[in-house]
Amino acid sequence: MLNGYVHPDFKAVAKRFEKQIPKGKHGGAAVCVYFQGIKVVDIWSGTRNRQGEPWLEDTLALSFSTTKGVASTLLHILIGKGLADYDDPIAKYWPEFAQNGKENITIRQAMHHGAGLFLLEDHIEDGHDVLDWHKTLAGMAAAKPVHTPGKGSGYHGMNYGHLVGGIVEGITEKPFQEVLQKELVEPLELDGCYVGMPDDQMHRRAHLITRNGVYFRAKKGRKPKGMLKYAKVIGIDFKTVQKTLMPASDKAFSFNDEDLVKACIPAANGMFTARSLAKMYAMLANKGELNGVRLIPEENFMEITKVHVRTRDRVIGLPMHWRLGYHRLFAIGAKAPKGFAHFGFGGSGACCDPERNIAIAM
User: What secondary structure does DSSP assign to 114-162, as a single string?
Assistant: First the structure.
């Protein structure tokens, strides 16, 4: 049974969504759609943990790389306020970053995944180091690019948020989570948007439900068969993919661990409602403004949405058509050349199409 609201013109969305909810098994989800600034779909169904507790209106779900779109939007807001420019060197705001040939890498290059710092294994020793915000920032500041910055792209799978987050903190001289709350969450009145869950919100979270309860396990000497097969088919180096995602560890790495949920990992551990994601992308679909609240100047919008890289990504192996912090809107049966998105592992994602003024999140 679905809960929530669906405008009659969008009932097909509800029918499609209903088919994706597990029958007789645990698992749930939420979907929200804004059209021309109006919320037309806001539905949820299923369960949120192994105990079978129902998915509720305010349930928060781990959204993996969908978090990158939120982190990017926050940086766009700061640049829109005139606090920085896309072509400024990162080191202008983050002096420690100017090591090993990185003194001229720009914010623009970082946001289209062109900084050449995607090999996470080069600047942290163990997968669990990503839980330590300052240690990972220091490792990135000391890292050396693996290709000429600005030449093509390499998806910064687990550390894009540290790269953008370091810039955000350098610009504002305030913690990333505090800036997120003040500059994005509060102005748009988002009801569930966290990168690092506070204790008083933990009761709202959905758990990942898998066979062994651990969604990602990076044990030394082990090669995930699925990822190895994908790398072979796409024609990319498996070792590059593995070093980008997470260094191996002797300890199982679980995305259900409270330590991970509470950490600040703006590339991978955002806890969101579909409602908050859709509302943020509705603001982007309307070129930076929603319900009288303008967060991004309209004149900045062409910079944000312009395709900066059309070649195959060095890590993903596909032409992602990177904008500044977002990729192309992959769609079946419809064309959305001006659309952009950021999807995440496990089924989460959010996108918008400014031509239709529509925003969608799951």
Answer: -SS---GGGT-SSGGGGG-HHHHHHHHHH---SS-TTSS----TTTHHH
Residue indicated by tokens 């959905």: 206
User: Tokens 């072979």 belong to which residue?
Assistant: 232
Q: How many CB atoms lie within 10 A of CB 178?
A: 11
Tokens found for residue 283: 């603001």
Query: 308 CB contacts (<8 Å, ≥6 apart)?
Result: 108, 112, 114, 322, 323, 324
Which pair of structure tokens corresponds to residue 356? 């239709």
Is 72 tagged catalytic? no
Q: Report residue 47 as tokens.
A: 């369960």
Q: Using CA of residue 89, residue 92, residue 97, residue 98, what is the dihedral sign?
A: positive
- Whether residue 169 contacts residue 161, with contact meaning beta carbons closer than 8 Å, is answered with no
The pLDDT tens digits for 18-68 are 999 988 888 999 999 999 999 999 999 999 998 999 999 999 999 999 999
The Cα 315–Cα 182 span in angstroms is 34
63, 65, 153, 348: which one is catalytic? 65
The encoded tokens of residue 97 equal 């970053």
Name the DSSP class of 172. H
Q: Which two tokens stand for residue 190?
A: 């988002």
Of 122, 116, 119, nearest to 104 by C-alpha is 116
CB-count burial class (<10 Å; 0-12, 13-18, 19+) for 252: middle
Q: Which residue has the tokens 């289209």?
A: 112
Structure tokens of 184?
A: 């994005």
Q: From CA 320, how far away is CA 330, in angstroms rounded? A: 9
* Burial (CB count <10 Å: 0-12, 13-18, 19+), residue 56: middle
Question: Using CA of residue 245, residue 248, residue 254, residue 259, what is the dihedral sign?
Answer: negative
The string of pLDDT tens digits covering residues 230-286 is 555 555 566 676 677 766 677 777 888 899 999 999 999 999 999 999 999 999 999
In angstroms, the CA 30 to CA 43 distance is 6
pTM (global) more than 0.85: yes
CA distances for 184 relative to 143, 305, 323, angstroms: 30, 19, 20
Q: Output DSSP code: residue 328.
A: E
